[in-house]
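Subject — a protein and its fold
Fields — amino acid sequence, structure tokens
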Amino acid sequence: MRKETEDFIKEVSKSFPNENVNIENVSDFYIILCDKNNCKNCKGLNDCQNSNQGFYLSKTKDGFVQVRCKYLTELQKSSHPNLLKSEYNEALSDASSKNYDLNTESRQKIYDYIKEFTTNYKKEPMKGLYIYGGFSYGKTYSLMLTAKALSAYGIDHIFAYFPDLVIEIKAAMENGKYDQIIELLKETDVLLLDDLGAENMTPWLRDEVLGPIINYRMNLKKPMFISSNIAPKDLEKHFMMNSSSEEKTKAGRIASRMISLVKKISLDDGESYLR
């Protein structure tokens, strides 16, 4: 290896003391430094100096990924304000902390965690919640309350009823909005999916829709809040199409990655909760 190359690797390595910077990846780490420097004083997309405008390179445990900057994300949202018809309009919801009965330990935990999450989210990475239990126990209401709190703190989020969202994504494949919807679901700061398990799970939905979204959000530590009638231990079974070893591997992978994004709370410790 030439001395100039060795010196270059040593210089770049100083900024990444916990990474193995070598001749195979040094150019990627150098791009991260350049992008970070360019983004430091950037005032908008027209001012972007990165080679991939609107994106910056980042390193995750699975490799190097291009991440949309806040200016590109804001532009996409303003360009497609009504892209998701399945997104709940919390302004029309009566969800209120005053109406949230704290008569069980699980609801008290959810209520306390929502407060902790919204007040600390912008300071440090936090997981979302996987809220599960029987019918009419308040899972949807808990997510609505979360969405209202996120709005109050100015935290970007999408809140959708999952079965309707699946139908909308399928329709988007015909109307040319598929990529835009998937990108929104990947990029939003907090993604809330209500009633996972009420949909008709298929290999396409698991591998082409949920898989990429969850993998992306896991790599960038973007939290999810999920409600479901399915207990976490049964998620793998829900994602399996048959009993083959290949299906078990695929189902296990997506189930474990989904659970890595959340804290699990069961609502099966009290009487049914109707709102």
